[in-house]
Amino acid sequence: MKLYVYIIRRLILLIPVIIGVTLITFYLSHVNIGMLIATYEGKIHTAARREEVIISLHLNGPIYEQYLYYLTNLFTGKWGYLSPGEPFDAGTPVFVEFQRRFPPTAELAIIATGLVLLMGIPLGVLSAIKKDKVVDQITRLIAMAAVSIPVFWLGLIIIIALGPNSPIPVPLRITAEGQLDWAKYAFTSTGALQPWVFSASGGLSRPTGFLLIDTLYYHDYPAFLDALKHVFWPAFTVAVTSFGVIIRFLRSSMLEVLGQDYIRTARSKGVPESFVIKKHARRNALGATTTIMGLFFAGLLSGVVITENVFGWPGMGTWLFDAAENSDLGSVIATTFVFTIVIVVANLVVDILYSYLDPRVRLD
Amino acid sequence: MDEALVVRNLKTQFFIYEGIVKALDGVSFTLKKGEIFGIVGETGCGKSVTAYSITRLIPDPPGRIVEGHILMGNLDLLRNLSKEVIIVTKKRTRIRHNNRVIKRNEYFFNKIRGKYISMIFQEPMAALNPVYTIEDQVSETLLLHNRTRMLKIIKSASEHLEELKEWQNSGSFPSFSGELGEEIEKIKEASKSKDSVKKHQELLIEAASKFSKRKEKFERMLSKSIENDKLEDRLLKTSDEAEQEAIIKKLSKETKKINLIKITRKMKRRSKDPIIIEARRECLSLLESVEIPNPSIVMKSFPHELSGGMLQRVVISIALANSPKILIADEPTTALDVTIQAQILQLLRNLQKNIGTSIILITHDLAVIAEMCDRVAVMYAGNIVETATTSELFKNPKHPYTIGLLRSLPRIDDPSRELKTIPGSVPNLITPPDGCRFHPRCPFVFDKCKVEKPETIEVSEGHTVACHLFHGKEVN
Amino acid sequence: MQSDIRDSIRARINSFLKSLYFLTRSPISTAGLIIVIAYVILAIVGPIIVGGNPTIMKQYVNYIPGVGYIFNNPQPPSVRFPLGTTFEGFDIYNGIMKGARLDIEVAALVVLSGATIGVILGSIAGFKGGVLGDVIMRVTDIFLSIPFIVLAVAFLLIFGRTLQSLVEALIIVWWPLYTRLVRGQVLVVRELQYVEASKAAGSSSFRTVLLHVIPNSIYPIFVQISLDFGNVILTIASLDFLGFGFAGPNLAEWGNIIGLATKGASGVLAITRYPWTVAIPGLVILIFVLGLNLLGDGIRDVTDPRLRR
User: Fold this and answer.
1) How many CB pairs under 8 A join A and C?
2) I want to staple C179 with a disulfide (CB 3.0 to 4.6 A). Which of A108, A114, A179, C118 is the partner?
3) Domain ranges of chain C
4) Would you say the ipTM is above 0.90?
């Protein structure tokens, strides 16, 4: 079938999956009613307020009614408020905090993925071409070791290796008294990044929320380089623990492809070996790799969450754990939902990519 | 010289963990120009290995051609064989490769494969890359090897643009000299529908106009191509080894420089490059020549959308696209239905007559041999045991294995109900029997057979046998 | 009827022993096997050797004559403290010796439960297929879209930070993997001809599945179990490191030990002054997971039918 027909079909199939996800988050959020109410109360904790919340969430009604209102709230951004456990943010709507937290995580995840592909694909292909030779053995060992390293430990070791001036970013928020919350995060002073980080204290407004893009937008090149340094190490940590999977899968995929008849045909046509690999083999092998991409992303994002906490990167990972420690249900549910939707969408994109690369898939 | 290919004493071995598989033990035969030469034998006798050895598609590791000569014209394709490796044999065999020589030989063979020697294989359903269109894959071989002719056609077309446009309007076929003329003739004969002719016209004119736009660039390309062609011709004619070396060195440099970008990217639908347009047009011609219905639709399809018979036709068209001197067909019809089988064989025979390719047809099916081949070689366990013309082989088989093979064919006029087999089984090629490899199963075995490998003896005109029984009965 | 089941089992045991033999032929897989066995031994005897409460690390809160207060002053490895101490006065050696048991117990529980659920659901989805199969796979897909850590944290927050919640959370995270794996295998196996033969000979579906389909789908599961063991342990360690485990800071778990290293006044940066608090427990985790992965890879190589000699 044509490509766009396939795309439309996949988009339609997306709906039940999203519904399924909302069902899960609905269940999780409504198990503990007390926490749920606290989430929607915000700063005010009177009995009257409590009643308000119960009515607005229809908590006294039947389940399907609760679910309906849950969905409405979900898709209109009414995700509750940060719990008062966090001293300086109580009362901020969860959705607002989400907007603040999402770009750094996205930035980190994108750069990490880029690193993985950059390092992983060539190594995987190389390992297959030079099967059983020294290069192959070493690569497989590296991949094996990489998969066994605890993410947080790698981050810590990198920090140890880089010494006391390690590139751990400063938090992007300040307390109610205008002080930095030092105790929570380790840090280092970054002269160039000052105006970016302390935006509340007369700094610049952030158009996208992405450190790298924003610094370029303002042509602040020293800050850009500094930001690059700060992003790199966490991204590298995530990449190292994730790229082992890609290498091994690509290797086995490539080996399988190279054993196929059509490779033999290409060689018998006199196609030079380098083009046999680049044109004929690689595309088929990459196509097969897209089947594990979903799982790969799930693992990658888990790694991102942990790494953020190690490096103090102010994204959704640190948000998740801070919220969990403060019994902030709203934030935790929001994070779960967002992460899941991101992976679901990523799966969709990868599927479409696969059907573009391999026309046989479109027959479905 | 009326020999297309002379194979002498070809020895191919596979170095694996369990030992050395001596797959080919000194295979020799001659392929005459324009003939269809069959190689028949059971599974595992080495027929396919022979085919792969000739085109050097043996995977290394674990395989290697260790000895032999393959002569195409005056050129020995295995000239530098001994320089490629240093074999250190102890209990475990180790091979050290001389990479520079190997690389150069690789470049050299990439020129040979697809242009002078082509191959088609057994499973057409798996033979083509599933992610690229038919058009893409057929054009690939044209772009690799057939630039000169294509450029000449485009150039002619650009010079006769007016006449071509006239042709488009009026419908009467113009006649030209040279390659363009040949093409027009082909179109006249092959095109069954007006649509097809229109397509040819369109593409020719488009290619011609694009050519004129960057005239110098393509003229340069053309002259370069012609130069290379001349070198290749010289390579095959000369018998001076030093000259051969020099030409090969030069050609491998050229191969590196060839603008291969065109064949790497999936061909964009609206490519403006005249060579690609012309390649597309020739693809159309090729598909027509193998009698594929609706060639313009088939061109844009993917392999999984076509049937086995169609795919095999496509594979044949790819193999014959550059009018190779030699075509090696390895069990081309084994995976097809019987009716399709007949069609494909017929097609092969027709094409062979038209183009004049010499064919090596490998099969285990004696019926196919009888149907198609002029001459036949029988292989057993890595050796050719008998060679003769087809009728001679069937009427007067000499080698005990051949006799056994022919006798084991069930016949409808045979009253006895038992199937006659050859006792024993195919030998292990890591530890093959001493002397004649067939001796453990031979009903006529005597002492000499167990010790000494038989030489190939000519027992009558054009009929050779490798068996001690005929020692002393040569015809001179 | 009884005897052919017995024969079948005997054949499988033989096949298993043969695989074991082949496993030891590869040095890398053997190394993995040795490492895993070593850690299992550690789990059994470690707590016994160091004595005391097997789930709690030894803590020095008070003044130690000759050394001082070590509560906020991690000690490097010495004779007194073989692997050093970390913040809040915990003896690292003590923690390491006791840590294996907890990790292995929890991981075993999680992985085996997940595998069992996976086998059941996967077989149904693969063999019966139909609407039920589709629904199962959709649900599996949804769960696989939630990052492991996030789901675990959410679960622990909502259902309380107990050991039970932890195990349940991890099982929920892990069962989809097995379901998908088993289903894939079943899809392949059921097309194989001996399944057709079994049905043609009159076996009921249930018997077919039990005797033929499952045993032949099972090898990749062993591989996955070995690999997942490592992943579960990494997840537990990560949760404990971030302080989100199910008990207090004195829990004898390797991840927790590393987490303690960041509990000082200067937070994470403290580790640059006291690297052993991080490096040593981390290496212990690394080697174990590496061993499990090597073993898993070895099992895969040995049971891959394409590589069978």
Assistant:
1) 158
2) C118
3) 2-6+28-307
4) no
